[in-house]
Amino acid sequence: METTASSARSFLCLLESVLAHMETPTSVFEGMVKKYAHVGNVLNSDDTRKLSRLCELIKQKLQDKARQFVKDSNGAPILCHYSSDGTPLSTKRFVAATLASSGRRVRRVGAETVEYLVQYAALRRVENDGSVQSTMVLRDPLPLTEGKTALALYSAGRSFIPSLRRMGHVGVAIQHYVFDRAGYSALARVFKQHHALEGKQIRSSEAGGAPVELLDALSWVVSSACASHDAHNALKWSLHSCFKEPNMLKDMYVGIASLRNSYGMLVQYMGEWLCDSLVFVNDDELPPERTLQVMWTALGVEYDIVEELVSLGLIFHNGKLQIKASSVDTVADVVGAVSGVLLALWRFKTFSTSRWMTLGTSCRTLVAGYLSGLEVYVSFIRAKPDTSDFHIHGFQPLHLAEMKSFAIKIALIAYISDSFLNDLFEDNRLAKNVDAYEQRMAEEMEWISELDIAVWRLFAKVCGEGYRSLRSDVLSGGARVIRLHMASGIVSG
């Protein structure tokens, strides 16, 4: 696989953070890094070759820095953390062949999807004065040509960075490994077996004369499952009992993608549809402003848009988009104001079908669309003889009641896992912050449980389900999310 300019620029996004873990570079080296890391840079073939060499220098520098880091510890305890995860990447493949009769050279390029292993290692020690010293090791993603078996991943990990003992460390050596739970048990076992065997092979002369028995006692090998993966899976598993249709997530993905690809039509026919569907009703016939405010806020709508929606009293009911009759006196261009707030509300975000954690935001926008007439508007567009149905027909499965129920439940339950991940990204020291993580999830659960009954009634009307049943499913799903976090060791440490 050849290095392209775009992939090279992507790699350089890491360079400035890498420099923080390296010794002060020379002015020439630093100048090259800043030159190629510039976002607006356009790389020619010569720049790409220079960049490839620069990346190799950085990778080697990080390896050398790690060895020196261990040497400078003078026997102080060191933590060596290693984690890896496979991810499919779409790459370009170049092939060439020569015709035997004419000698003509034929070149072809095509896309292929390859599973790559992304690896990362970090070393840390605490100095006598209490200061913390760290360094890191990065390398190219490794194509998993031998599959994703435990032995294949183990082999990649052992070639990525030597153990602390192999690098000559004689003090307390903490080897910490993190893997996706799918292969966690096998990988944790094989790495622990490796260190046990390695301890028997290291001679006293290789360890600075330290007794081998002492080195064995000072070697700690620990492992844990990836908390981010567990947070994603907790949301997925919590809803399995409610939704067993395997194509449901695929239909959701296609439906949202169809809206994104048809957004031009959503804009084009907005005025015509509003003239047909917009009705003015008495203020007291609409849901109370407090109910609307809580409902739109529960769907993650931004504050200024919520204020606009509440001031208009906007809600889709009985086949019509209803707003306050009093808005005629306060808004000069009612149709323009409504179309503007709908476009602000309908911000459809794509998600990954393999990562449920990206689904919450997409589902909240979709539910907001249901509550503001999106479903009827799509049918209005598709009924027009002069419009193309090529993309927008993908919305069809989202008309089903079970899909609407699916969207509502994920939109609310995902807040619990989202809160955990947000805290985790700010400070990933699980054992230190265990109580804070659990408290934050409990607060999100309490907030969901205290939503007004009037709000649950509005959500239930979308999917044609009883509000008590809908509320019960959401609360039980949220409770399962928290239990799964705790059972998988995320909250319990």
What does this structure look like?
The protein is of the alpha/beta class. It has 3 domains: 1-64, no CATH class; 72-224; 233-487, no CATH class. 52% of the residues lie in helices and 16% in strands. It contains 21 helices and 9 strands. The strands form 2 sheets. Strands 1, 2, 3, 4, 5 and 6 form a 6-stranded mixed beta sheet that branches. A 3-stranded mixed beta sheet has the order 7-9-8. A hairpin with a 2-residue loop joins β8 and β9. α11 (270-277) packs across α15 and α18 (401-426) packs across α20 (453-463). The two termini are 41 Å apart. Mean pLDDT is 86; it is low at 1-10.
Short description:
The chain has helices spanning 5-12, 15-19, 27-37, 45-71, 150-160, 184-201, 212-217, 227-238, 248-261, 263-268, 270-277, 289-298, 303-312, 327-330, 334-345, 359-371, 374-382, 401-426, 434-449, 453-463, 467-487, and strands at residues 78-98, 105-126, 132-138, 142-143, 173-179, 219-225, 278-281, 315-317, 320-324. With 493 residues, the chain is an alpha/beta fold.
